[in-house]
């Protein structure tokens, strides 16, 4: 609309002189030329108009102007879409009551649908905050129906689900995300996700990444109500604390936009468009553009904080023009009653490689074969110390040159070409397709360390900072634990035992014309080429020529929808036994595909197709990996391939969840049959033949050892399989379907429990369980009106947990012994009889998640520390965690710790146990603590001006004190950073009277302070922590701590006290970049009593308050302190070890003690500074020096204390 403004209008309005007019004309002409230049001569692929928050306009006037401006502008477009990104309804959303619905529908028709009726293109609505009212996804379903029935608009994602994608054309894709779905408290919506494929937030993030992969080579628009980047101006509390989930700084929202941004950065040409913020913005962070257009009603202030950014609180809209060449242009317009005024434009340059930038050698320069290796010699040349610490692995094989056939894609039949990038958390691959729509996978033998690290640091993009660092080199070296060529022998071995599989072949693939833009990251290395396991290849004989091929996700949906779908358990068991035979531990659900065979009467049977065998025959030698297994349970699955499996439980961790879902009715005889089949068909001769087919260049001693161990394992396979069979049978999960099911559970003598599921008088499932084998069974009804009946008596009963799920379920537990009912409190149920029940609106407890299982793990960690007062300490911490049906976030956790302090020879023992859901969302905590008699704290006397003699030995002011306490508590916390504790405690303290120390001079020997004193008391604790942005170098956030308590002596002494301990710390960026941060902490303590011993006094000194003073330097009835740092990040260094950020701090502390009857006005101060090094955004080493009038201290900490 800015093009229609004329020079004459400027003259009428401003009446400038000729010179002024010339200046204005020059500026305007320059602006006009700028608008035209960005799209000069470019072919437009698609145009998006973006707005939001029309439902927030109380008068309807402003939103009408915005929509009118959009509709008018769209008349010039050939291919356009209007995106209204949330908050189209008023605050209460789409109501449930009929009268209120009619009123809302009238409002939407008049204020929204009618104004956009003449928009020249498609219209898409996405949900915002308002659409999620009390009825949640049900309200969204009804709103969606109304909008689509009464307009040409579409509403995505539908059904209250998380994400939907839409191909706009061959150049543009649109991904729509319901961010409020992520932020909602799902416990308030019993049926949320019941129509959705995605049931968890982790699944959502994985799906978002997969959608970006699937749309590789296109410009991808991500429409999400809450922005991933924002410069909206909030008040101090909103900006720093983020208490509400609608604030940008909120922990849950931070996690959402951190992961979305980090994921998008790994791909090219991804643009986020959002509408939660009521303004107009353009931001770009690390080449991730963010457009915010939510200015259709009352607006919010925003400020562009970087060059090239834009922010305005004018009412208006954004127009995003996407060009065929991959570049884009965003323009912002202010709307008025009569027209639209141009505000700003920004060109978004294409990131992905163009064909013009691709270079490769002519095809004629290559022979039929080429010599190559996976790694270079330099990459596998390690020192003797490295080999001892990390192991030999198969390192030398990775740099060994092999002779491989050269593959040009145009030499393959059917005009094969790449269509998208694939790969998992380690592998790099391309999806290929031919003219018959058969697909193939081209996977590089060289894996990606960056993908592995990124998958474990989802909230931070790491590619730029780990490239060519020790972190990358360690992961690349870790990959050499897997033999790169031995798994190719599995093709023949799986043929011998009749397991469906792909048939990978090794090639050298040069950079070439057929790879197109993928030449940028692929080509000139060794690859394996194999058939893609998908429905497009269902006609291939190697997959059994099935009727269809499903992913594991689709298989689960089929199994849960109807019992007419089933897996061939014998085939699956055979495949899983084969996994153990060849040492393939990484069998998570994406490593499987499923061949569907129709059997008549609408019945379907699925056979497994295992894929990705790269972890077979692995070699995890070296002590470091063994040590890592002590502290990190996932490493325990990684077991070296030798003659036996050390632990079948940990080896099968990745496949356990799938095993529990599929293996339902098989007996040991079924397992035994498959073991014998494998043993009889895998003869020594067949094993040797399979490995003889590997390339001659890799036929070395490692292959000989693998064959030897494979033969021994084959002979021991019965024992290994029996061990795993018994482990699997300890716990079972039985599921109904989404239809109406009847569960009949019969208790019998000798611990036998029969479970029968029927539908319409037809038995669809039946199995018997013995208490000697099975300890617990979870029974899920899922959707539908289900009926559960427990009958019979019996003895030695198996524990049962029955979960009805959705709809109205009937429960009749004639025998309630060791049986408990779980269902939603807010939905209708018919409970005829059930003695033990827990009716609670908990999404996590009541919904079926195949990954949820009954399991446990143990972690052991060393501890080392240093303080100026206590010197060095060494210790151990052991944590045992269990996971069951009710988690928060675990079922139970027990941590035992022990420390020894060398300077004082003190011993410290601790235990903390936590038990989930004693009351819903409230955990029970048990805290126990003990110190030996020579454990110390400091005492310099009571008062604000106690004497300090720097010349005396440190021991002079140390007090030996033996203490213990026992404190049960109730604990509540949430994902938004808050925690409450209510705890009662019993505490014992006994001070040793050392006459050669200050304590001996200060108190007479008969003083009660030297008696063993026993206290009882209670505490209320509140904590809030929000420093998610960068925990290692926090530049924006807040931490609150408040403890209120009471203690009284309960063994004959008259001491008692109340106390209050508040503190607050804030990190605030002086500069928007976070380079300069002001951090401050204010705290103190008030003792409400005159009858207390010194060890219960309010204390100051040490790292927590006055950093230049000794720990517990001052002691009194009340205290106050403030510690402040100005932190300056000086720069970043990309070292070969890891990326480092270094900086300095300047610190100042002040504080004082108050004591009754003491006349003191003195405030104690100290100042100093520190040098810090931040590594990998994960940890910070901080060394400081602080000085005061009485002492100087060197302070070393990991991280910052506030």
Which helices and strands, and how do they pair?
Layout: H1 7-14, H2 18-37, E1 44-51, H3 61-74, E2 80-85, H4 98-113, E3 122-126, H5 137-149, E4 154-155, E5 163-167, E6 172-177, H6 179-183, H7 201-214, E7 219-224, H8 236-240, H9 251-265, E8 270-274, E9 280-285, E10 288-293, E11 310-312, E12 316-323, E13 328-335, E14 340-348, E15 369-372, H10 377-380, H11 384-390, H12 395-398, E16 402-405, E17 417-422, E18 429-433, E19 439-444, H13 449-456, H14 463-466, H15 470-478, H16 490-496, E20 505-509, E21 525-531, E22 548-551, H17 552-561, E23 565-567, H18 569-582, E24 592-598, E25 604-610, H19 623-631, H20 648-651, H21 653-662, H22 668-681, H23 684-692, H24 701-715, H25 717-729, E26 731-735, E27 742-747, E28 752-759, E29 762-770, E30 776-780, E31 787-792, E32 799-803, E33 810-813, E34 819-823, E35 830-833, E36 837-839, H26 843-846, E37 855-867, E38 871-883, E39 892-901, E40 906-919, E41 922-931, E42 936-938, E43 958-973, E44 978-991, H27 998-1002, E45 1013-1026, E46 1037-1049, E47 1056-1069, E48 1076-1091, E49 1098-1100, E50 1114-1116, E51 1118-1134, E52 1139-1154, E53 1164-1175, ...
Parallel strand pairs: 1-2, 2-3, 3-4, 6-7, 7-8, 8-10, 23-25, 26-30, 27-31, 30-32, 31-33, 32-34, 33-35, 34-36
Antiparallel strand pairs: 1-12, 5-6, 9-10, 9-11, 12-13, 13-14, 15-16, 17-18, 18-19, 19-21, 20-21, 22-24, 24-25, 27-28, 28-29, 37-38, 38-39, 39-40, 40-41, 41-43, 42-43, 43-44, 44-45, 45-46, 46-47, 47-48, 48-51, 49-50, 51-52, 52-53, 53-54, 54-55
Keywords: Signal
Protein name: Metallophosphatase
InterPro entries: Metallo-depent_PP-like
């Amino acid at each position: 609309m800015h093009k229609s403004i004329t020079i004459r209008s400027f003259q009428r309005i401003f009446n400038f002189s000729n010179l002024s007019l010339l200046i204005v004309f020059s500026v305007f002409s320059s602006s006009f030329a700028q608008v035209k230049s960005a799209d000069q001569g470019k072919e437009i692929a698609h145009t998006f108009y973006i707005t939001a928050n029309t439902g927030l306009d109380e008068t309807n006037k402003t939103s009408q102007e915005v929509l009118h401006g959009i509709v008018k502008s769209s008349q010039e477009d050939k291919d356009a879409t209007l995106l209204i990104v949330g908050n189209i309804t008023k605050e209460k959303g789409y109501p449930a009551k009929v009268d209120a619905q009619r009123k809302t529908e009238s409002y939407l028709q008049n204020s929204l649908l009618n104004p956009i009726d003449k928009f020249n293109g498609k219209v898409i609505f996405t949900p915002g905050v308002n659409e999620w009212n009390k009825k949640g996804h049900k309200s969204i379903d009804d709103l969606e129906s109304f909008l689509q029935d009464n307009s040409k608009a579409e509403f995505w994602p539908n059904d209250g689900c998380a994400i939907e994608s839409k191909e706009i054309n061959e150049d543009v894709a649109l991904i729509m995300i319901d961010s409020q779905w992520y932020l909602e408290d799902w416990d308030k919506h019993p049926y949320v996700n019941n129509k959705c494929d995605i049931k968890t937030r982790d699944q959502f993030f994985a799906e978002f990444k997969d959608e970006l992969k699937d749309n590789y080579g296109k410009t991808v628009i991500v429409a999400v109500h809450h922005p991933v980047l924002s410069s909206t101006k909030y008040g101090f509390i909103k900006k720093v604390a983020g208490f509400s989930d609608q604030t940008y700084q909120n922990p849950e929202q931070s996690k959402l936009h951190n992961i979305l941004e980090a994921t998008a950065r790994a791909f090219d040409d991804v643009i986020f468009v959002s509408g939660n913020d009521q303004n107009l913005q353009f931001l770009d962070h690390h080449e991730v553009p963010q457009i915010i257009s939510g200015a259709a009603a009352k607006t919010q202030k925003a400020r562009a904080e970087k060059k090239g950014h834009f922010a305005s609180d004018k009412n208006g809209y954004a127009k995003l023009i996407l060009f065929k060449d991959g570049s884009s242009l965003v323009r912002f317009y202010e709307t008025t009653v009569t027209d639209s005024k141009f505000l700003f434009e920004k060109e978004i340059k294409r990131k992905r490689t163009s064909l013009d930038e691709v270079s490769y050698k002519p095809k004629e320069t290559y022979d039929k074969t080429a010599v190559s290796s996976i790694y270079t010699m330099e990459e596998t040349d390690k020192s003797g110390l490295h080999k001892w610490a990390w192991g030999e692995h198969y390192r030398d094989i990775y740099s060994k040159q092999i002779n491989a056939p050269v593959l040009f894609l145009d030499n393959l039949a059917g005009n094969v070409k790449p269509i998208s990038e694939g790969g998992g958390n380690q592998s790099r691959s391309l999806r290929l397709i031919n003219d018959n729509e058969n697909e193939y996978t081209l996977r590089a033998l060289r894996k990606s360390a960056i993908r592995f690290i990124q998958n474990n640091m989802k909230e931070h993009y790491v590619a730029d900072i780990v490239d060519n660092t020790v972190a990358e080199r360690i992961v690349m070296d870790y990959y050499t634990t897997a033999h790169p060529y031995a798994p190719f022998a599995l093709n023949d071995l799986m043929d011998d035992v009749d397991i469906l599989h792909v048939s990978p072949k090794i090639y050298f693939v040069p950079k070439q014309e057929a790879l197109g833009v993928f030449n940028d990251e692929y080509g000139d290395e060794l690859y394996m080429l194999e058939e893609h396991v998908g429905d497009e290849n269902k006609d291939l004989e190697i997959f059994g020529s099935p009727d269809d091929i499903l992913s594991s996700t689709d298989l689960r949906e089929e199994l849960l929808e109807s019992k007419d779908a089933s897996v061939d358990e014998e085939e699956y068991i055979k495949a899983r036994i084969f996994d153990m035979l060849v040492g393939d531990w990484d069998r998570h659900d994406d490593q499987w595909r499923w061949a569907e065979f129709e059997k008549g009467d609408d019945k379907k049977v699925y056979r497994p197709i295992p894929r990705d065998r790269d972890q077979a025959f692995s070699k995890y030698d070296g002590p470091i990996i063994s040590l890592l297994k002590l502290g990190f349970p996932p490493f325990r699955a990684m077991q070296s391939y030798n003659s036996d499996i050390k632990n079948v439980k940990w080896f099968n961790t990745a496949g356990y969840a799938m095993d529990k879902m599929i293996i339902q009715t098989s007996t040991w005889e079924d397992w035994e049959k498959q073991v014998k089949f494998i043993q009889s068909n895998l003869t020594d001769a067949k094993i040797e033949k399979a490995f003889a087919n590997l390339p001659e260049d890799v036929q070395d001693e490692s292959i000989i050892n693998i064959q030897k161990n494979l033969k021994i394992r084959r002979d021991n396979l019965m024992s290994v399989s029996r061990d795993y069979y018994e482990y699997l049978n300890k716990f079972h999960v039985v599921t109904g379907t989404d239809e109406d099911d009847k569960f009949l559970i019969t208790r019998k003598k000798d611990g036998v429990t029969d479970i029968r599921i029927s539908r319409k008088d037809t038995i669809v499932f039946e199995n018997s369980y013995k208490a000697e084998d099975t300890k617990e069974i979870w029974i899920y009804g899922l959707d539908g009106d289900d009926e559960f009946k427990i009958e019979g008596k019996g003895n030695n009963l198996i524990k049962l947990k029955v979960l009805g799920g959705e709809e109205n379920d009937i429960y009749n537990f004639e025998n309630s012994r060791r049986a408990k009912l779980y269902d939603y409190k807010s939905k209708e149920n018919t409970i005829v009889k059930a003695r033990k029940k827990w009716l609670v609106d908990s999404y996590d407890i009541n919904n079926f998640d195949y990954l949820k299982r009954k399991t446990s793990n143990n972690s052991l960690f060393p501890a080392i520390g240093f303080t100026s007062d206590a010197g060095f300490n060494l210790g151990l911490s052991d944590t045992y965690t269990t996971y069951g049906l009710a988690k928060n976030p675990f079922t139970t956790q027990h941590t035992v710790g022990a420390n020894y302090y060398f300077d004082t020879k003190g011993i410290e023992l601790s235990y903390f146990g936590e038990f989930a859901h004693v009351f819903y969302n409230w955990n029970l905590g048990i805290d126990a603590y003990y110190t030996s008699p020579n454990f110390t704290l400091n005492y310099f006397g009571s008062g604000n001006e106690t004497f300090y003699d720097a010349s005396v030995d440190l021991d002079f002011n140390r007090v030996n004190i033996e203490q213990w306490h026992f404190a049960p508590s109730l604990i509540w916390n949430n994902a938004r950073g808050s925690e409450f504790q209510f705890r009662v405690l019993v505490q014992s303290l006994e001070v040793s009277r050392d006459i050669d120390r200050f304590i001996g001079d200060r108190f007479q020997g008969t003083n009660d302070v030297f008696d063993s004193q026993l206290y009882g008391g209670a505490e209320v604790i509140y904590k809030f922590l929000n420093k998610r942005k960068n925990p290692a170098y926090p530049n924006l956030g807040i931490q609150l701590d408040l403890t209120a308590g009471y203690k009284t002596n309960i063994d004959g002494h008259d001491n008692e006290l109340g106390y209050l301990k508040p503190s607050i710390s804030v990190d605030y960026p002086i500069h928007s970049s976070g380079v300069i941060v002001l951090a401050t902490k204010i705290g103190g303590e008030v003792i409400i009593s005159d009858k207390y011993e010194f060890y219960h006094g309010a204390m100051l000194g040490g790292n927590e308050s006055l950093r230049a003073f000794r720990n517990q330097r001052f002691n009194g009835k009340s205290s106050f302190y403030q510690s402040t740092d100005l932190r300056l990040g000086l720069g970043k260094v990309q070292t070969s070890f890891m990326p480092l950020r270094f900086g300095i701090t300047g610190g100042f502390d002040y504080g004082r003690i108050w004591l009754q009857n003491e006349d003191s006005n003195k405030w104690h101060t100290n100042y100093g500074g520190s040098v810090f090094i931040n590594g990998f955004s994960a940890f910070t080493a901080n060394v400081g020096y602080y000085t005061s009038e009485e002492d100087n201290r060197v302070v070393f900490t990991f991280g910052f204390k506030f």
